[in-house]
Amino acid sequence: MTTATRTQKNGRVASIMQSYGELPSWVKIWMNFILGPVNLATLAFLNQPSGLLIAALAIGGMVVTVAIVIAMGGFTKLAAAGHILPWTPLVLMLIFARPEGTEVYQMFLTVLLVTNVISLVFDLNDVRLWFKSKA
After folding, report:
1. Cα angle 42-117-102, degrees, rounded to a multiple of 5
2. For residue 74, is it left (φ>0), alpha (ψ between -120 and 50) or beta?
3. How many domains does the chain have?
4. What pLDDT does residue 9 have?
5. What span, in angstroms and rounded, lies between the C-alpha atoms of 43 and 51?
6. Please, what is the angle between helix 51-72 and helix 3-21, to 10°?
7. Rounded distance, CA 67 to CA 63, Å?
8. What does the alpha-carbon distance between residue 33 and residue 30 come to, in Å, rounded to a whole number?
9. Running along the chain, 135 residues long, what does each successive block of 10 average in pLDDT?
10. Cβ atoms of 74 and 96 closer than 8 Å
11. For residue 91, how many C-alpha atoms fall within 13 Å in the half-sphere facing its CB?
12. What CA–CA distance (Å, rounded) separates 102 from 129?
């Protein structure tokens, strides 16, 4: 890796870290202590009905968002778009075609549903604001 490439890479990481630091405290708390852990917890239910699909959609939203943050060099309103494509079908599935499973799984799916619906409300508004700023 050349010095220029390393500097560019370090600059992108610094930019991402700076933009993260500029997020409101409540957003960081939401992301780190509620949204992220709830979606990652889907991995604990892979053996439940549709567990793999639910985990793929839940974690897929996180992966796409991280890719957008890296591509943009920081947290922007566009990052919210990463949740919309995978989490919309996940939410619809949990509302209209909820899989059977243990009582604990059912309680978890309710927590996942509520968490991702709240996130999608913010995400849709953030993407709207991002497009509005580009118009």
Report:
1. 40
2. left
3. 1
4. 65
5. 8
6. 110
7. 6
8. 6
9. 58 94 97 98 98 98 97 96 97 98 97 98 97 92
10. no
11. 16
12. 40
Nearest Cα neighbor of 56 from 67, 40, 35 is 40
Q: Residue 66 and residue 60: Cα distance in Å, rounded?
A: 10
Q: What angle do CA 75, 64, 3 make, to 5 degrees?
A: 65
Single-letter amino acid, residue 94: L
Domain coverage including residue 7:
3-134
Residues 6+ apart with CB under 8 A from 102: 48
- Which residue is it, tokens 């890719």? 67
Residue 26, class by beta-carbon neighbours within 10 Å (0-12 exposed, 13-18 middle, 19+ buried)? exposed
Are the C-beta atoms of 60 and 86 separated by less than 8 Å? yes
Give the Cβ contact number of residue 105 at 10 Å: 20
Distance from the first to the final alpha carbon of the chain: 38
